[in-house]
Amino acid sequence: MASSIGNTAIKRIRADVREMMTDPSDQYYAAPLESNMFDWHFTIRGPRDTEFEGGIFHGRILLPSEYPFKPPNIILLTPNGRFEVKKKICLSISAYHPEHWQPAWGVRLILEALISFMPTKGEGAIGALDFTAEERKKLAKESVVWSCPQCGSIKDLIPEETKRDKPVESKYASQIAQLHIHNMEGATPSTPSEETSSEEEATPTEKPMATSSDADESPQSEAAPVPASVAAAAPVQPVAPAVTIPAPAPARAPSSDVVDNVLQGIATALIVAFLALLYKKLLQLNGSIE
Ligand SMILES: [Zn+2]
């Protein structure tokens, strides 16, 4: 029943609000809009010892009506150089990856995971940006004066940072570490490199020896070296060794080579697709066992 799901979500969202109020962090803050409990606005500090340090970033967490059984969408609003703004970003905690989401997780884990993902590589994920450290530092500096049309000046939304030597250990540390592993797995694999052509290098022609009898007198010999272009223009065809074993394929015309390459490409693509499918099935199998 839709209404009972809605009730579950509202109860859970109220619990998330209470948790944020009773155990506040100086690294993040979030609250739902008064007009819509499913639309949260959050403020996070850029993680220490990274190019985001000193920055304050604001965004939205859009909880689904099936919350906490389905993951939220996450949108950044403050320019930061790691995530596109006003775009639903792809992370292992976001709606793009329901397979990783666990109902026990709430807004607090989402924010802590988001902060920990900031210094990681974008890997071409949806909404990811790979700005340089300098650009990110500049954006972090500018971010503190950023203002949300609905919430106002974002630096006033987050509790004052308390001085401490070490960052507070998150109670979700091990789960967040696991999420980083998932994110690595989700990264698009690099395309296999093209086969390098095995073209024969032109055998270098013998350089004419300097005929000067006295080497000390004229080290720069007058003998003109063969220009490289001339040497390359006439590649020496290697003499094919006498074939004694019957060759399975006689010398092929260039056109059949092209066909062969295309067929090989298709075969490779099919194998890769099959392996990807197998890997996905394995993951699903793992998920159902868990
Ligand atoms: Zn806001």
Question: Short description, anyone?
Answer:
Residues 220-229 have a biased composition (Low complexity). This protein has helices at residues 2-22, 107-117, 133-143, 173-186, 228-233, 254-289, and strands at 28-33, 36-45, 56-62, 73-76, 147-148, 152-153.
3D structure, described in words:
With 290 residues, the chain is an alpha+beta fold. The chain has a domain at 1-162 and 170-186: Ubiquitin Conjugating Enzyme (Roll), CATH 3.10.110. The protein is built from six helices and six strands, in the order H-E-E-E-E-H-H-E-E-H-H-H. The strands form two sheets. The chain has a four-stranded antiparallel sheet with strand order 1-2-3-4, covered by helices on one side. A hairpin with a 3-residue loop joins strand 5 (147-148) and strand 6. The radius of gyration is 31 Å and the shape is globular.
CATH H-level homologous superfamily name of one domain: Ubiquitin Conjugating Enzyme
The main sheet comes to:
4 strands, antiparallel
Which topology of one domain does CATH recognise? Ubiquitin Conjugating Enzyme
- Class from helix and strand fractions: alpha+beta
Largest sheet strand order: 1-2-3-4
Unreliable stretches covering 5 or more consecutive residues = 188-254
